[in-house]
Design brief:
Elements lengths: L1 H22 L38 H4 L14 E8 L8 E7 L9 H12 L2 H6 L19 E8 L2 E8 L3 H9 L9
Antiparallel strand pairs: 1-2, 1-3, 3-4
Length: 189
C-alpha cells in the first residue's frame, strides 16, 4: 500500500510539474509572467499550452505493485491458501490434513483465524517473509534435542508465493522452526 501511495504521488507531482507552464497562460491570451523554461522567441514561442484541469492520479500498473494494480486488502489481492498435513504429534485432534484460507478466513484448519493472524504478522516484516517457510540451511549447528516424531508438510500459496515445505522436531533448529509456525502447526510443546 505504501509503495502504491508513493508511486501515485510521484505521478501526480509529474503531472503538476507539467501543468506549471500552463498556469502562467490566461484564458484571454495575455501572457502574464514568463517562466524561464518557456521560449519567448522562435518557432516554439507561440506554442503555449492552455490552462486546463489537472489530471487525476492513475492506478498503478500491475508490474509496479506486484499485482493487478490493487493494493493490500483490495480486490485482486493474492490469497493465502495452504494445505497443512500433520502426523505423529501425540496431541488429540492435531494430526490430519487441514485447509487454511486467509482473506477471508476459511477452510478446515482448527485454529484458522489465529493461523491467518500469525501469517499476516510474519508477512508484515521483510525478515518474516524471507524466513517463515525457509528450511534450516545445510551445515547449521543445531542442538541434538529430540522434540518428538511430529512431522508436517505445508503446500500452497502464501501472499501469492508458492510454498512447499516440511517441518519436524528432530533437533533444536527444527523445534524452533516448528514453534515459529504455531498456530499454523499445532503446539506440541
Amino acid at each position: 500500500m505504501l509503495r502504491r501511495l508513493a508511486l501515485t504521488a510521484v505521478v501526480s507531482l509529474a503531472a503538476l510539474a507539467a501543468a506549471v507552464p500552463a498556469s502562467t497562460a490566461t484564458a484571454s491570451g495575455s501572457l502574464g509572467p514568463t517562466p524561464a523554461a518557456v521560449p519567448t522567441s522562435g518557432p516554439l514561442a507561440a506554442a503555449r499550452p492552455a490552462l486546463g484541469p489537472l489530471p487525476m492520479p492513475l492506478p498503478l500498473p500491475g508490474f509496479l505493485d506486484g499485482g493487478d494494480g490493487a493494493g493490500p486488502g483490495e480486490a485482486g489481492e493474492a490469497p493465502t491458501r495452504l494445505t497443512v498435513s500433520v502426523e505423529n504429534t501425540g496431541v488429540a485432534g492435531a494430526d490430519g490434513t487441514f485447509e487454511l484460507e486467509c482473506g477471508p478466513t476459511g477452510g478446515s484448519h482448527p485454529r484458522g483465524q489465529a493461523a491467518c493472524d500469525r501469517l499476516a504478522e510474519a508477512g508484515a516484516t521483510r525478515a518474516g517473509r524471507q524466513e517463515l517457510f525457509r528450511p534450516t540451511p545445510e551445515g547449521t549447528m543445531c542442538t541434538m534435542i529430540h522434540g518428538g516424531d511430529a512431522f508436517a508438510r505445508i503446500v500452497g500459496t502464501w501472499e501469492g508465493r508458492a510454498v512447499d515445505t516440511t517441518a519436524s522436531r528432530r533437533d533444536g533448529c527444527e523445534i524452533a522452526r516448528w514453534n515459529s509456525l504455531v498456530p499454523v502447526l499445532p503446539d506440541v510443546r
